[in-house]
Amino acid sequence: MNIPLFSSLSDIDQAGVNLICSLGIPPMDAFLLLKDLLNASRGRGNRIARARKCIRLGEEALVNREKSVPFSHAIAASLEAKSHRRPRTLQEIRYIATRMMKKCPELARKQVRSITPEDCEHYLLQSFSTVRQRYKGRLILSGILNFSLKRGWCRKNAASLVPPPPLKETRIRALSLYEAKQLLHTAKRMFSGECLPACALMLYAGIRPYEVRRLTWNRINLKSGLVSLAPNHTKTGGSRHVSILPVLAAILNQAGSMHNSGKLVCPPNWEKKWRDIRRQSGILRKKGWVQDVLRHTYASYHLAHFGNCSLLQKEMGHATPSLLLTRYLNMDGITPITGAMFWTHGLNPPSLLLQD
């Protein structure tokens, strides 16, 4: 290559021209490019330092565009990877993500690598009107971006850098001892007692309503004293093992021949039968039935009797104790005496207990 010589240039400057030419760039094109760069990096401070920063940011933006995927693609891939999760969970993820893309149309085409915490905050505020919706939206958005991070589509989970909205959790009242036993006896009396095992698993093992609907008898091992919940049965998508304590074992033993079978614990037409049992028990008639009240009751009586928060956290399948302390535990009216009676009296008639 013929390298032009500039008689007025110093040896150092001439070496710079030679370096540019060795890269295959005509000197005039390189000078014009440098002029554009310096013009684009105008502002306070050293212009060379600002130009280097401009190059860095431009390089990152180029990588973001070339080695990332649109948000809509990330959602589809995330849902495919989570296909083993329960349908209700997948439906919730799909609904939240679709709502955000509908309210913020630019989000669908946005490269996930270029999504910033400010973007996430804007999408949540624009898409959801209540604090609880924004809280849930942030969790799902964070999950999608965390999946993208593992795939190498972004360098950070921008949603995790957005402070969660201040969500005030409503504490759910645990059933009284009398109410718990009344519910058990109603389940035993109605429908030939076929709903009793499922009721007892929710009350004495803290199994969620949607989990117990999927539970089969071969997941219950009375010899090892464990209920094993598969990843596709749990809310969080991870397996969980819950201890079968003596009061629960006594009730499950009544099912006898059902053990080790692949049949569902819940009988046919479970939803209607369970609703009838709750209605006939007469409890919580004024305020209605709260979905997870038996799980909350389990947690409160477990801590009252055993006094071991770490053990309870493990049995509940929580990663941290914060949810237990802020939402699950409601010890109002529960004493060590009623806690002991809850775990030892089993199916004793509720009439023998002190009614509230």
From TrEMBL:
Residues 170-341 form the Tyr recombinase domain. Keywords: DNA recombination, DNA-binding. The keyword DNA-binding applies. InterPro entries: DNA_brk_join_enz, Integrase-like_cat_sf, Integrase_catalytic, Integrase_recombinase_N. The keyword Mitochondrion does not apply. Coiled coil: none annotated. This is Tyr recombinase domain-containing protein. It comes from Akkermansia biwaensis.
